[in-house]
Automatic annotation (TrEMBL):
Species name: Paenibacillus typhae
InterPro entries attached to this UniProt entry: MUG/TDG, Uracil-DNA_glycosylase-like, Uracil-DNA_glycosylase-like_sf
Protein name: G/U mismatch-specific uracil-DNA glycosylase
GO molecular function: pyrimidine-specific mismatch base pair DNA N-glycosylase activity; uracil DNA N-glycosylase activity
Residue intervals of the Uracil-DNA glycosylase-like domain: 8-152
Keywords: DNA damage, DNA repair, Hydrolase
Top-rank lineage group of the source organism: Bacteria
UniProt record, GO biological process: base-excision repair, AP site formation
SUPFAM superfamilies for the chain: Uracil-DNA glycosylase-like (SSF52141)
Length: 171
């Protein structure tokens, strides 16, 4: 199965970083393509996007200052299918991408994505207070957008809303 292409360029406000693509995303070639994933609804409801985008439009978000990548590129059924070796390689590749493109914010979509990348045992929601892994790139941890997450949607949207508020203040 094909890897889902990154959408990255210099000067982005936010790069959203997932564990890895779902099988559906791998089949369609777009980020967050599983219809049970709430990612696109969360972006709209938090104010980060002016309308509800579809996964097929993921590349269009570059115009809004948002990019996409994953810690592991291989599509799987679930994050539990990712090997330790893939995480090790993925950490190095992700660090290189963040160093190259230097987004203002690296938004980790799930605490596990952040802890795998940073090698820190814990994370809180929102902006991280620890020294960032890549100097000058602010780290933000947001809940996973998977439909399996048990947190109420209003709480998830509220956490993503912190990103919107930050961008508005800097704007």
């Amino acid at each position: 199965m094909e890897e889902v292409p990154d959408h990255l360029e210099n000067g982005l406000q936010i790069v959203f970083i997932g564990f890895n693509p779902s099988i559906r995303s791998g089949e369609l070639g777009h980020h967050y393509a599983n219809p049970r994933n709430n990612f696109w609804r969360i972006l709209q409801q938090s104010g980060l996007t002016p309308r509800l985008y579809e996964a097929a439009e993921d590349g269009e978000l570059l115009k809004l200052g948002y990019g996409f990548t994953n810690i592991v590129a291989r599509p799987t059924v679930g994050a539990e299918d990712i090997t330790r070796e893939e995480y090790h390689t993925g950490r190095e590749l992700l660090r290189g991408k963040l160093e190259q493109y230097r987004p203002q914010i690296a938004c980790f979509v799930g605490k596990g994505v952040y802890t795998e990348f940073s090698r820190r045992p814990k994370a809180q929601w929102g902006f991280q207070t620890a020294e960032p892994v890549v100097d000058g790139v602010r780290e933000f941890v947001a809940p996973s957008s998977s439909g399996l997450v048990r947190m109420p949607m209003s709480e998830i949207v509220g956490i993503y809303r912190q990103l919107y508020d930050f961008i508005q203040e800097k704007g």
